[in-house]
Amino acid sequence: MIEHIHFYYCNDLHSHFDQWPNIVDYFNKKKKHHAQADEQSWRIDIGDHVDRFHPIAEAYNGKANVELLNAAGFDIATIGNNEGITLEHEHLYHLYDRANFQVTCGNLIAVNKEKPAWLQNSITIKSKENLTIKLFGLTAPFNAFYHPLGWHVESPYDYLAREIKELREEADILILLSHLGFTEDQLIAEQYPEIDLIIGGHTHHILKNGEEVNNVLLTAAGKHGKYIGEVHIDWDHRLNKIVDKQAYTVETEYLSQDQDTVHRLAKLNDAAQELLNKPVTYIENSLTVDWFEQTPIIELLTAKLKDWTNADISMLNAGLLLENIAEGYVTYGDVHRICPHPINPCTVKLRGIEVLEVVRGAYDEALMHFELKGFGFRGKVLGKFVFSGIDIDTEIDEAGIEHVQHVHLNGHEIENDKVYTFATADMFTFGRMFPEIARSTTKKFYLPEFMRDLLADALRSSL
């Protein structure tokens, strides 16, 4: 006898709800179809469903996302870094209190506190023919961010080394829900062929027909709900093993919509706008945002960052601010719309020679026009870089390119070997935009504050 088992999933939605009604409708139809065939199916979220760039996620601190998963009939979820490090401790601790689905994340640990009631190391489900299917979640260990928020994330490899034998012994089918990224999924598959299936996310990769590594099936469905994934497993009860496993992705744009979900989103959005309609301050004159100019509003925010972190120097990019601020009352909803990024302030210690390299790099026209995707940035382009605490002398050459000549702090040239405290947005500690910042071993992240919290405070206190 062959038993057919089906899993449907989404990953890295990031509160992009445009296709959510399409996803819900598709999952509902598939659930009904399998039920009519007397087959079982489950719906899974692989994390980063929450992203506070969206007013619904911001106003409800992620709980509305859980409400949407409940209404969509999801069965299982794991957490991503956007649930883990963009919510304050208590908001994450109680995020899934009213979830109608089970949540697993084996390597997430509450520091000096009982683990949340909803958090499971693994989840066991039984098929109609008494197969034991075990699913366990693992999330990326960004402990520089988790620790200030009262959490610790164990290395996924330490967790697997300790737990994999017992997990395998207890399961006929073993499934990892991975918010670790494609490279990590491949490495885990190489090291742990005991795992039958890895449903992945985090790095926004898409495996349209899955990929087998060491007989482990890997799958992932991109980002923002543009695709969803499905996995179909055939178990032969006579041979007592999996005889087939297949993974596919489905493009969502042209799927039909679930109208109840359309109405639910509209209602949530209206309520979120009302919740965010709290006044922050009143301004007499409008403030202009220009991604390629040093405007008063980005100067104000950059100066606030320096003072708030007690740094010597601060640097921000004008592309952080997305819209002008009109005169009159400014609400928190306005601040959120203008600066929606889940980006935290941070400081690094840099030698003077490294500061100079950062400043020179900031005048690169290509970097200013770079359309950054990820690292928390929810804007269009990086824009002009603005500094506070230093004076920069530049010269424009015959080709019209601006070059840094001298950098002064308090009237004195930056000293090559002197160590300075340099404040910026945490996204510059990743990637290759500023290698001197990214490779620093003295990063300090300020959580749970986002850059928009500093913007609200700057508007209140300076205007």
Automatic annotation (TrEMBL):
One matching Pfam family: Metallophos
Keywords: Hydrolase, Nucleotide-binding, Signal
Domain spans labelled 5'-Nucleotidase C-terminal: 286-426
Matching CDD domains: MPP_UshA_N_like
Single biological process term from Gene Ontology: nucleotide catabolic process
Domain named Calcineurin-like phosphoesterase: residues: 6-205
GO cellular component, one term: outer membrane-bounded periplasmic space
One example GO MF annotation: nucleotide binding
Family, per entry: Belongs to the 5'-nucleotidase family.
Protein name: Bifunctional metallophosphatase/5'-nucleotidase
UniProt source species: Gracilibacillus thailandensis
Lineage, opening ranks: Bacteria, Bacillati, Bacillota, Bacilli, Bacillales
